[in-house]
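Homework-ish question, so no full write-ups if that breaks the rules, but can someone show me the predicted structure for this set?
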Amino acid sequence: MTKSQSVPDELAPPPISEAVQHGVYPEMVHDERARFNFHACLYKAISDEVSPGNSLIYDQRVLPKFKKEHGRKPESRHEVRRAMTADPFHNFWGALRRNTMEMRQVNGQLVTLRQLEQMAERAEKLNAGSDRLVLNDTVEIPYYVAEVDHHCMPGSYYREIVPGDVAPAANYDAGFFVTTGGTIGGLCDGGGKSVANWLQTSYPEFAPKRILDIGTALGNTLLPIAQAFPDTEFIALDVSAPMLRYGHARAASLGIKNIKFIQMNGENLSAFEPGEFDLVMTSIFLHELSSKSLPKIISEGHRVLAEGGLMLHLEQPQYSEDMPLYEQYMRDWDSYNNNEPFWSAMHETDLIALLSSVGFDAAAVNVASLKGISDYEDGKGPTSVEHGRAPDWHAYVARK
Amino acid sequence: MLSESEILKLATTKAKGKRPKYLSTPAEEHLLSMVMVLAEELAVMRERSDTLERLLDKYGVINRDEIETYQPGSQAGQARQKQNLQFTSRLLRSLRQEVDTMKGGDKSAEEMAEILKKR
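A: Not a homework solution, just the prediction itself:
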């Protein structure tokens, strides 16, 4: 590198060498890391330097053109989408974003596919003899997972090429650090830290004995919550064996002993008694469901929740009348371009109405705004990125 | 164990789901994808080069300052600039050739085929 740096240190996303190399983290050679480092910068540069053009062209030409043609403002984010996707600047930005994700996935596959057996072995060593990993090969991958390669990840969360395969999880783990540009820390757990922090401040007397997390994946978000409540027993559910194997091994290598990882579909929690849990939660999960499975999972979650217990769903903000249509459309972009097809429908679902339909008191649903916590001190470190990818979430909390 | 060619094939296989259309033509989509992969490779080469420099410096083989202050001298300087110029020409080939066609006289393959059928 030349000695003159035009970018101040605190603005560059950290290199992937700064991701925490826990016990099952995939090994990478020089150029594989260099590729990921480039992708992290590409995401950041597109966000900082190209993306601002989207709102500018919306104001300067897309909206005026729409008003001229229709004699009114757009009335839905879908109208905004059709207008924006007729604009060549917006489409070029979209092509850059889509290509970046595709390239990041290629690298993740190159890294993980060459070490399938080794990673499976490392996970097995960490998992052997543990009763805190319960797999069940009769659990089917639901169609809404099987038919969508979420975030353009071929094989999605569940592909198994070798026995004991953990590759999809390893790919996701490595890529997550890249796409978040370090904004949620070296373990990509800033979301979980935020939830733990918020729970402890908002409900200081809350002393849960058992917490259920549905759709845990590899546990980035759940681990800091488990650490914040060390005397609580956590049950982590997922339909994917690779995610669970990796998640359990990762947690074990990080010294977390209070999570039990179980292969189970959240639509059917008959394995649990009514009222068994003090907190039932999901994090960045509901948008990967379907219109029928979403209410089932909420309903089952309510059933196994104790009286006075809390249900918490961490998600990107729902669309509402308060949210400008342009912002709604930009938040919808992943739904149409990043293989997140249920995202659009999910974010316009009236979650409060859904919670009340399963028995929660609608008036007592709390919607809190949470920001991701990174390892960096306040004021330093990379700042947030575009709508839909920013570490800004809502927690929808209901008490039974 | 997957073979190298199996890994490469799987790694570059598309994810399920129709790819949205962003640009006016498939050719543009391909060009952009290729340019971005080139940019990626360039970044990787730069980082590898940086690693080499740092290691060479660390083991006392060269001093990094020497790279910054390196003066090639007349012969090496000319050789490097010739390479640079050749690269620039190759980079701009399609534009140079578009200019060439402005002079006229080019026949298409179909036109030539017709001529050759008759003569």
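Now go work out the reasoning yourself. Hint: The helical segments of chain B are 4-11, 26-58, 64-69, 73-91, 93-102, 109-118.
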